[in-house]
Amino acid sequence: MNKPKIGFVGVGRMGANMARRLSDQGYTIAAVYDHHQPLAEELSNELGASAAARLSEVTAASDVIFTVVTDDASMREIFTGEDSLLVGAEGRTFINCATVSPESQQVAAEAADKAGANTLAASMASSITQARDGTLYLMVGGEKAVFDSNKKLLEDISSSLKFVGAVGDAAKFKALVNMVMNINTAALAEGLGLGAALGLDLDMLREVFSQTGANSRVLETDGDDMVSREHECYFSSSHAAKDSGIANKIAEGAGVDVPLSRATEAQYRKLIDLELGELDKSAVAELTFPGRAGKK
């Protein structure tokens, strides 16, 4: 069976590495598009793809189009208007990977259906390294038949692939994953910051955390960085604020109070106000360690 031609819209850190992975797996990356045209041109030169100047050019060149955009507004933009991805989209499949609201995923899927195209929401619980290595954790929503027909493609970029139900459900799962992750990250920053204020040995404190109920995945990924102030960006603080905000709006709609998540969003928005939003989420420790006061 011939492999589909692939297009990408949004080729920042995640999208570009996904494209590289699929190219390594023998897929033709036919076209790439990004608001920041130099990113598209650089990747197109690397992979032998077309650097599309218009969204409709990506659709025309591709069988399957991955979208990896920033937020709800970006999702609306690429699926509406005279030069959207839906121009000439009949028979195409869109795989939307952005962390956006369930409503945004649903609206995009309905618009694609009217244009004769298929849609999957493939929410990613992973980062840049996993995108490049093809070890993403994917939570996929949409029609089961569409999922099944694209399963091999999705397996080529993932190590864990879960079909979770409707398009909007994928966004709900992802929102809750990031809600809990962000809370854990903010809590770890407070615990380590308090330990520093008490003069404790932070290496020993992290070891104790790892062997007790204080253990968490973020202790493993972010603990050292919080202490050393190495906040190279894998998942930005600005994205953490956005994603906690998505979860908090979902909770509000469900009539559920989530005070920890609201406090976590507030911490990450404080980092944005301090112009530290493009640092990794571990930078929340800049607000909790003595003597830092949010200043690098």
Automatic annotation (TrEMBL):
<feature type="domain" description="6-phosphogluconate dehydrogenase NADP-binding">
    <location>
        <begin position="5"/>
        <end position="164"/>
    </location>
</feature>
<keyword id="KW-0560">Oxidoreductase</keyword>
<keyword id="KW-0520">NAD</keyword>
<dbReference type="InterPro" id="IPR006115">
    <property type="entry name" value="6PGDH_NADP-bd"/>
</dbReference>
<dbReference type="InterPro" id="IPR015815">
    <property type="entry name" value="HIBADH-related"/>
</dbReference>
<dbReference type="InterPro" id="IPR029154">
    <property type="entry name" value="HIBADH-like_NADP-bd"/>
</dbReference>
<dbReference type="Pfam" id="PF14833">
    <property type="entry name" value="NAD_binding_11"/>
</dbReference>
<dbReference type="Pfam" id="PF03446">
    <property type="entry name" value="NAD_binding_2"/>
</dbReference>
<dbReference type="GO" id="GO:0016491">
    <property type="term" value="F:oxidoreductase activity"/>
</dbReference>
<dbReference type="InterPro" id="IPR036291">
    <property type="entry name" value="NAD(P)-bd_dom_sf"/>
</dbReference>
<dbReference type="InterPro" id="IPR013328">
    <property type="entry name" value="6PGD_dom2"/>
</dbReference>
<dbReference type="InterPro" id="IPR008927">
    <property type="entry name" value="6-PGluconate_DH-like_C_sf"/>
</dbReference>
<protein>
    <submittedName>
        <fullName>NAD(P)-dependent oxidoreductase</fullName>
        <ecNumber>1.1.-.-</ecNumber>
    </submittedName>
</protein>
<feature type="domain" description="3-hydroxyisobutyrate dehydrogenase-like NAD-binding">
    <location>
        <begin position="168"/>
        <end position="287"/>
    </location>
</feature>
